[in-house]
Amino acid sequence: MSMVNPKQTISNPVIPFSWTVLGGFQPGEMVLVQGSVPPSADRFQVDFLCGSSVKPRADVAFHFNPRFGWLSQCIVCNSLQGERWGHEEILHHMPFKPGGAFELAILVQKDTYKVAVNGTHLLEYRHRLGLERVDTLAISGKVNVDAIAVLPSLTGSEPPGPGSGPGSQPSNTLAPPCGDWKVPFRAELPDGLSAGRSITIRGRTTDGAQSVCVNLRVSGSSDIALHLNPRLDRRLFVRNSFLSECWGSEETQLDAFPFRAGHYFEMIVLCEQQRFRVAVNGSHQFCYKHRVQDLSRVTLLEITQDLTLEEVRLQ
Predict the structure, then answer these.
(1) Each residue of 15-50: pLDDT tens digit?
(2) Which of 294, 303, 301 has the alpha carbon at shortest distance from 195?
(3) Which of 90, 281, 308, 314 has its CA 20 to 30 A from that of 43?
(4) Model confidence over 13-24: pLDDT tens digits?
């Protein structure tokens, strides 16, 4: 077991690897793991442990376990307490590729672990064991690790997103004049929309949430170029436009509904030449053909209903 000072980077550790972080993990700190998955890998795991005991086995506060089965690939998250596993949380979305490199970012917060892979938010796992007990990081399985680091508390609350590395262009945070994120939220879109621009909305649906509404409005009118309305009570994701004082035909087709009440989400709306593309939590959801052709007139973003906002960005 390595005993290392927090905030220090560990290079090329031998796997299996265990690292006790002096003082434990604090809210706002981020664990970064850079490495690659061997072509023959069947699984690997990253564990946040309460101590380093082997017999009896130390409690596992957060077990992050990508599995590369030939029939299905998934990521299993769980906790171990008193040498008994709890209920598995399974994500059937695999950002890791055997033979491919990755950067895994795990943001430790007061009540959750938030995970991003290669700059894209992946999942959120609520604490089942008190964070004050967690002081050890362990990595095992079939994985090659180039570097591990614990970064100090960062400004903001999310794992780094795409384009956050050195040399990237800063995005425009659309904070309202008062500087907070109160809902209903409204913000001007400088110069309107155009092909290649995107809007990223990060927040959390409220407990018992029934509906979230995002509107992209046309300047000088009541028109809405794009109306996004996840309806959590009915598990529908409605898309529409409001033009010439009339709603158009709704679009609702969706493979899987991505929102849950009381959970964090990241929604990205990408504007293309002929359509919008919408992704939630790193997964593409649908495309929506433009019903307003002059995108430069789409100058107002509106977010309302059952959510709290953490960040809104225009890129």
Answers:
(1) 999 988 877 898 888 899 999 999 999 999 999 999
(2) 294
(3) 281
(4) 999 999 888 778
Q: Cα(175)–Cα(313) distance, rounded to whole angstroms?
A: 8
Amino acid at 249: S
**CA-atom Rg of the chain in angstroms:** 21
Q: What is the pTM of this model?
A: 0.51
How buried is residue 126: exposed, middle or buried, by Cβ count under 10 Å (0-12/13-18/19+)?
Answer: middle
Q: Is the pLDDT of residue 180 over 80?
A: no
Tell me the Ramachandran region of residue 273: left when phi exceeds 0, alpha when psi lies from -120 to 50, beta otherwise: alpha
Identify whether the C-beta of residue 265 lies closer than 8 Å to the C-beta of residue 205. Answer: yes
Q: Which amino acid is at 79?
A: S
Q: Closest Cα partner for 287 from 276, 271, 295, 273?
A: 276
Buried b (16+ CB within 10 A) or exposed e, 59-76: bbbbbbbbbbeeeebbbb
The 10s digit of each residue's pLDDT in 113-137 is 999 998 888 999 999 999 999 999 9
Q: Are 114 and 29 in contact (CB under 8 A)?
A: no
CA distance 189 to 299: 5
User: For residue 143, what are its two tokens?
Assistant: 């994985």
Complete DSSP assignment for 157-208: SS---TT-STTPPPPEE---TTSS--SSEEEE-TT---TT-EEEEEEEEPTT
